Amino acid sequence: MMSTSTLPSYDDVVSRYEPVIGLETHVELGTRTKMFCGCSTEFGGEPNTQVCPVCLGLPGSLPVANAAAIEATIRIGLALNCTIAEWCRFARKNYFYPDMPKNFQTSQYDEPLCENGYLDVEVNGETVRIEIERVHLEEDTGKSLHVGGATGRIHGATESLVDYNRAGIPLVEIVTKPVPGTGVLAPEVARAYVTELRDVIRSLGVSDVRMEQGSLRCDVNLSLNKPGEEWGTRSETKNVNSLRSVERSVRSEMLRQASVLDAGGSILQETRHFHEDTGETTSGRSKETATDYRYFPEPDLTPMAPDPAWVAELKAALPELPRVRRLRLQADWGISDFEMASVVNAGAVELIEATIAAGGSSEAARKWWLGELSRRANESGVELGELAITPAQVAELQSLVDGGKITDKIARTVIEAVLAGEGDPAAIVSARGLEVVSDTGALTAAVDEAIAANPDVAEKIRGGNHAAAGVLIGAVMKATKGQADAKTVRELVIARLS
Amino acid sequence: MSAISRDEVAHLARLARLAVTEDELDRFAGQLDSILQHVARIGEVAADDIPPTSHSVPLVNVMRADVPEPSLAREDVLAGAPDSAEDRFRVPRILDEE
């Protein structure tokens, strides 16, 4: 492995090389049964209890395509602006690897179900169009436990133990065209694309698209070339299992390739593995070429010829897609691209929308979710949506503030109580006696006490130094346990001393 | 000129994990060559208006509903494995096998 000291800086690399990225994403569909048989796809079953003659490839078994998987794939293709094939076939991809008991994977080759689409993503306030080459349907492989080597790695293993429960689960492969011209933003564009793709697929309800559970997996292709020269040889990095890793793997592979090219070397077309711990890639097996897979049309499955009228129906029934929805909400809320980006990054779009639906204003909803609540979510290491407070409770909290019942500061105390399970904001305010002290008599008494206790300060204010009022306001707030409205107290203090 | 070389047959045999002897390579190269030449002649006859056929039955869209069906009992599944351990198929090491 190359030592990091020989790596050029990222800025240096992008000043001399242009990256071309390409992304291959695999999505496990959330169908109840496998692609070609009725075995359950439920996650976490005992090893080899969800297999049958079809997914084991036993002689005489006959696969039949899962209608729900085909429909889901067409919907993904439509959401990605693809053309849907009028007629296409499955193909056998032949290879010997124990993750498939059949010695081939049923996939698609030169006739994908969907092709020539695009997905628009936002990066730094700019829209980048990622062209989609194809969306095709195939089947997932089994899972191997590698025994005898270090920490379960395949390298050094003496044998492997295979569970075929996952073999045959419908898998959709989404391949982009090469994306040139992203320059310094290449890592962020890659991440933004996978994020947007995940959100689109989630909005379709066809997969839970969880990278940490492997239902969304990503391979990152990358090459570098000098400006004006032809595209370079690409490497394909596998094992990129989080959005952050997508970004990191592009960056680290750009640095690695630049250092190889700088030293006069050439890039091998190979598979590389990304390592979460070091953030670097290492060489994997060199790729078999497409002809080595000896693809041929799958004789046991009939061709697919989706009825164009049905495809048109599916298209008309697509839900509002995340980007369209974001643009609509941004316009409704009247906020800038930058503010919207903060909302999206905080994962607060739905929460704010629901808070507004419950009667909150867009300003207040954003203030609470992006401020106090984000802070608390960060502290507890949970997602914003996992906090024990509902959008309706946030709207109720704000209406208490707006109605002058509590101050912003008390509202924070109320949030803490809601998170601790004490109930709804209004109930907490009355149960804990947190309502603002609006009784002027009581406030005036507290102000007089504060003046008496701080004669020097009072003298300064009398002399016209209103900035000094802070000390007295602080004393009154303390005396009223923060339940007074600071603005009212300030007015009272100044009125008493002028 | 032959349609397939001896080297190509050796490469295909390797991909298919078939142990083929030197004598067999010569014999199969010859046999495959005559099969390919035969198919090439048919290809000459097939005009543009005759699409390639992959399925002999003119059916499309044969599909099943997404309804679970019982799987095999695990002992039956593993009975077909050459070896098993921990309820899984046991296979020789995967890397460096060639």
UniProtKB/TrEMBL annotation, chain A:
Catalytically driven reaction(s): L-glutamyl-tRNA(Gln) + L-glutamine + ATP + H2O = L-glutaminyl-tRNA(Gln) + L-glutamate + ADP + phosphate + H(+); L-aspartyl-tRNA(Asn) + L-glutamine + ATP + H2O = L-asparaginyl-tRNA(Asn) + L-glutamate + ADP + phosphate + 2 H(+)
Family classification: Belongs to the GatB/GatE family. GatB subfamily.
Record bears the keyword ATP-binding: yes
Domain Asn/Gln amidotransferase: 350-497
Organism superkingdom: Bacteria
Name of the protein this chain belongs to: Aspartyl/glutamyl-tRNA(Asn/Gln) amidotransferase subunit B
E.C. designation(s): 6.3.5.-
Alphabetized PANTHER family for the sequence: GLUTAMYL-TRNA GLN AMIDOTRANSFERASE SUBUNIT B MITOCHONDRIAL AND PROKARYOTIC PET112-RELATED, GLUTAMYL-TRNA(GLN) AMIDOTRANSFERASE SUBUNIT B, MITOCHONDRIAL
Classification via SMART domains: GatB_Yqey
Gene3D superfamilies: 1.10.10.410
InterPro entries reported in the protein's UniProt record: Asn/Gln-tRNA_amidoTrfase_suB/E (IPR017959), Asn/Gln-tRNA_Trfase_suB/E_cat (IPR006075), Asn/Gln_amidotransferase (IPR018027), Asn/Gln_tRNA_amidoTrase-B-like (IPR003789), GatB (IPR004413), GatB_Yqey_C_2 (IPR023168), Gln-tRNA_amidoTrfase_suB_CS (IPR017958), Gln_synth/guanido_kin_cat_dom (IPR014746)
Keywords: ATP-binding, Ligase, Nucleotide-binding, Protein biosynthesis
Subunit structure: Heterotrimer of A, B and C subunits.
Alphabetical list of Pfam families matching this protein: GatB_N (PF02934), GatB_Yqey (PF02637)
The encoding gene: gatB
Function summary: Allows the formation of correctly charged Asn-tRNA(Asn) or Gln-tRNA(Gln) through the transamidation of misacylated Asp-tRNA(Asn) or Glu-tRNA(Gln) in organisms which lack either or both of asparaginyl-tRNA or glutaminyl-tRNA synthetases. The reaction takes place in the presence of glutamine and ATP through an activated phospho-Asp-tRNA(Asn) or phospho-Glu-tRNA(Gln).
Biological-process GO terms, alphabetical: glutaminyl-tRNAGln biosynthesis via transamidation; translation
One example GO MF annotation: ATP binding
From TrEMBL, chain B:
MF annotations from Gene Ontology: ATP binding; glutaminyl-tRNA synthase (glutamine-hydrolyzing) activity
UniProt keyword Nucleotide-binding, yes or no: yes
A Pfam family reported for this protein in Swiss-Prot or TrEMBL: GatC
GO biological process, one term: glutaminyl-tRNAGln biosynthesis via transamidation
Recorded catalytic activity of this chain's protein: L-aspartyl-tRNA(Asn) + L-glutamine + ATP + H2O = L-asparaginyl-tRNA(Asn) + L-glutamate + ADP + phosphate + 2 H(+); L-glutamyl-tRNA(Gln) + L-glutamine + ATP + H2O = L-glutaminyl-tRNA(Gln) + L-glutamate + ADP + phosphate + H(+)
InterPro entries in UniProt: Asp/Glu-ADT_sf_sub_c, GatC
This protein's UniProt keywords: ATP-binding, Ligase, Nucleotide-binding, Protein biosynthesis
Known EC number: 6.3.5.-
Family: Belongs to the GatC family.
Subunit structure: Heterotrimer of A, B and C subunits.
Function comment: Allows the formation of correctly charged Asn-tRNA(Asn) or Gln-tRNA(Gln) through the transamidation of misacylated Asp-tRNA(Asn) or Glu-tRNA(Gln) in organisms which lack either or both of asparaginyl-tRNA or glutaminyl-tRNA synthetases. The reaction takes place in the presence of glutamine and ATP through an activated phospho-Asp-tRNA(Asn) or phospho-Glu-tRNA(Gln).
Full protein name: Aspartyl/glutamyl-tRNA(Asn/Gln) amidotransferase subunit C
Species name: Actinorhabdospora filicis
UniProt lineage: Bacteria, Bacillati, Actinomycetota, Actinomycetes, Micromonosporales
